[in-house]
Amino acid sequence: THEKFVQCLFNYSHNTNTSISNIVYTQTNSSYSSILNASIQNLRFTTNTTEKPLVIVTPLEVSHIQATIICSQRHGMQIRTRSGGHDYEGLSYISEVPFVVIDLVNFIEIQVDAENSTAWVQSGATIGQLYYSISEKSKTLGFPAGVCPTVGIGGHFSGGGYGFLMRKYGLAADNVIDVQMVDVKGRFLDRKSMGEDLFWAIRGGGGASFGVIVAWKIKLVQVPSTVTVFNVPRTLEQNATNIIHKWQRVASKLDERLTIRINIGKGSSAQTGNQTVQASFESMFAGDLDELIPLMEKNFPELGLVREDCTEMSWIESIMYMAGFSGQPTQVLRNRTQPNLVFSKNKSDYVKVPIPDAALEGLWPMFFEDGIESPVIQFTPYGGRMDEISESEIPFPYRSGNIFHIQHQVYWEEEGDEATERHINWMRRVYSYMEPYVSKSPRAAYLNYRDLDIGVNNNGYTSYEQASVWGLKYFNNNFRRLAEVKTKVDPRNFFRNEQSIPSLVSHG
Ligand code: FDA
């Protein structure tokens, strides 16, 4: 069927501006593998047994996307759309059924309108490219999206998207004001022509269930010309557990310009040199040092922050700092590829009441289990602007009442199925250990930290009830409305995957 599909693409697009033949890659094409691998971010999905697309299309214009959608339906192919390829389960480029990848690597245009504090950004651009383009136009405009510069706009914005400005300005998706997308009928829509329901759904409900999102219009936000950053490590011997105890009670109530997240991993004790747990308090304050120090002394003296721990810089430099690029030219933010890829598995949780110290003390030994390379548990505070936005404003529902968010991560370099199984099993045990201390009914999860363990559709085929197993965890009370929008715009469930929103009229 894929030959017929490719023929259909040629027929369909023979009178478009640019020929489609240069942007269609079948498995025999010599560039196929390099294009497929270019944005895979997790070595788990680069093995010989990973299911691969029959065809990759790298559209240059909207008509190429339209042709791919129409021809895929005619010739029984599924579509996976890839922007930055960061999906934690590889859903943008893996499928068990015959499929084509629409890779938006050429849709990377960014137009910043500093005068009106807005920008149009195409889905295939990365957040690093967006930050770079904003900083080229203004030193006092920024955008509240994620931390890792190679993350793609398409997946990130359609699943939420947060970083160090979240407590002040909410999620990336909260700051989207218009979009352009192609729907299942091949129609090119904007906010006005798609209507408010679909516009609501694709800001946090995941784009892949609804069509291919081409570009986003965003509202840029004010950042001061000077911000202050620090990254302060504390080991168990330096009272890390007590400091985390206090952090859990204050971090979501601090001045909304201040975000202090914690990365908890393995470290070594300064006193004994022995392995220990280390909590690194990593922070960006959208203000200067003279304001930050008294704020910390008053609200969080347990951390013992001193002026020497902190550095003042511009907002774009803080982006570089958090990405580990300090001292390099800002142009590195435009690089799309991540060096040093490893294997990884991630999960997420939300916390409404502080985790007891005894529970944390029970968690620490798990970091040192045999054969577990690099576990990192990350706590990110909520509060501030997140408390003010209603749970149904966009599909992302976890607002007031959530004091912080956990990302459970484990990274490893050892190859082979046994190592993968060992690390994934470890992650599942940590997740089950944490169950009593995190949100319940549903046990909340963040769509952008995709986790197929929480439930899947069978090859994309599912009922509303079955899909509710995972859907309520990501979307809670917004899941029903997402299914209603899906039913309206794609009733036959063409755009489907292991965790796509189900149509209420069809299981297929
Ligand atoms: P990818 O291309 O893999 O797409 C993800 C999903 O969106 C897939 O289902 C895909 O089909 C769909 N999709 C993509 N483009 C689409 C389009 N144009 N139209 C329709 N559907 C589309 N998150 C966060 O909030 N803050 C952070 O700081 C980070 N940091 C981070 C670091 C690293 C190293 C990784 C691997 C991930 C993160 N994330 C994150 C998570 C990230 O936000 C999440 O993986 C995003 O979905 C990634 O978007 P991409 O476009 O890169 O992914």
Q: Biggest sheet, strands in spatial order?
A: 15-12-14-13-17-18-16
Strand proportion, as a percent range, falls in 15-25%
- Main beta sheet, described? 7 strands, antiparallel
| Morphology | globular
Could you tell me the radius of gyration in angstroms?
23 Å
Mean of pLDDT? 96
Task: Report the total helices.
Answer: 16
Describe the structure.
Strand 5 (110-113) and strand 6 form a beta hairpin. The longest helix has 18 residues, at 417-434. With 508 residues, this protein is α+β, with helices and mostly antiparallel strands. Helix 1 (2-12) packs across helix 3 (62-74). Strands 15-12-14-13-17-18-16 form a 7-stranded antiparallel sheet. The relative contact order is 0.12. It contains 16 helices and 18 strands. Helix content is 28%, strand content 21%. Bound molecules: dihydroflavine-adenine dinucleotide. This is FAD-binding PCMH-type domain-containing protein. It comes from Canavalia gladiata.
